[in-house]
Amino acid sequence: MAVLEFLQEILSNASILVGLLALIGLLVARASLPDVVTGTLKTIIGFLILGGGANILIGALDPLGTMISEGLGLQGVVPTNEAIVALAQEDFGAETAGIMGLAFVVNLVLARLTRLRYVFLTGHHVFFMAALTAVTIGVTGMEGWQLLITGALITGSVMVLMPAIAMPFMRRITGGEEIAMGHFGTLAYCAAGLVGSKVGDPEKSTEDFQVPRSLSFFRDSLVSTAVAMLIVYLIFAILAGPAVVTELAGGANPWVFAIVQALTFAAGVWIILVGVRMIIGEIVPAFEGISSRLIPNAVPALDVPIVFPYAPTAVIIGFATSVLGGLVSMIFLGPLGLALIIPGMVPHFFTGGGAGVFGNAMGGRWGAAAGGFVNGVLITFLPAFLLQYMGELGFANTTFGDADFAWVGIVTGFMSEAGPALVWIWAAVLVAATFVFGMVFPKLRPDYLTQQGQASSEAESVAG
Amino acid sequence: MIRVFAVCGMGLGTSAILKTRLRAALDATGVDYMLDVTDASAARGQQADLIFTSAELAEGLKGTSAKVVVVKNFMDREEINQKVKEAIEELQS
Q1: For residue range B38-73, what is the model confidence (pLDDT) as tens digits?
Q2: Number of domains into which chain A is organized
Q3: What is the total count of domains within chain B?
Q4: For residue B59, what is the domain's CATH number?
Q5: Across the A/B interface, how many CB contacts are shorter than 8 Å?
Q6: Among A178, A182, A222, beta carbon nearest to B39
């Protein structure tokens, strides 16, 4: 009995479960024994680091929330994926780990069976999407195997669908089909590409001119987070007034307090990142190893910076207009009765940059600018609507930042509120979409160009 | 034992892919190594012998004692194998 209880206890511990996931992955990928042991241990420790970082982050985020509510009478939210996922692990840790592991399997099965042969290799986004589905399904009371299976089907399907939908744009950017976009900001990238194609001229590329090197420090996420948070904390400290902030600081100097809390926020995010990195650093290589054996002709879907070298200037333009879009949208949030979404620099840099590259490929410099702006608007309004589907976590002063987390979360949360049957239907719809899209829209397939080449050469030989 | 970092902006997505390719390339050279993924800030604060990263981030890593190798295409196994081989030969000479 004691053994059984011990087993039960250990399997309901999220950190152990994530470690188990890495262990299975490493064993299936036939890693060497030392690699299996260190990989498993590092994954478990990474998960524990994640929790520690979350605590530090909340300590800094709570006073900001108070300053915003005292200053403006609004709930203030800084969308930061790492932060909300770390917070979600307390209640949904085991579910997240389970969904993540199963979602990799769903991705492999769909990539094998459908014509969308994409393998999603951005591990931290799979982790985040798994947490998002666990929360949006779990808050309405669904649990156990139903939660795991529906969450995994939803996560695994979007891991195939989103790279497919971005593929027509990716061909324009990279000039080939060797890599796909594997980042859950894709709804905004495609919107940026579409808007870009309407407003600009792809011939007038952003890459004809240079942007000052000094802006490249934003690539360093720790520095950009710190700088942005200093500005945010100081603005809201001023709006709340020194009296409120002094009380928060326990009588200490309010400005010093605001500065230290802003930097503590950056420190918290960074610690969480170290944790995520340790988890992902083991699981992704294992997943890639397995997928390359099972689906040799699969196309890897990779993190958004993979497109940055194709248009580095568009990245900076897209980032700037994305922040602008976020700031403009902020004005409308209060009057619409929504929470105040404060532009988080990490999501704006990476997704704004990606939107800039997509916009540039379809509509040149104006396309890049418009694309970034559209991204900024989307990642401000969508997270604001997402909050209501996240239960208690909706009051956490932070939430998911990127467009796909927001739209998947909103739809899943909406279905989940309507009942478990609808969650199953929604999961089935997404799975069906991977099959249908592959058949109906050949452009979404990874080998569209090569097939066309074959088709035309066949036609030629027939004609000849 | 040489210490190697794969560095990208967040130390999450791209560097994890780079890591799998670096591991294969390093194994092929037969050296004894330790390989980790990280972001630019962390890479600056730690001792390493070799850092593999993109052109944009290499700029900010110039002050470190490590040899910084720029990888153009993170997916290109041949480029990575070639650059790992060269870097290891240089370190050992």
Answers
A1: 888 778 878 889 999 988 788 878 778 888 999 888
A2: 1
A3: 1
A4: 3.40.50.2300
A5: 97
A6: A222
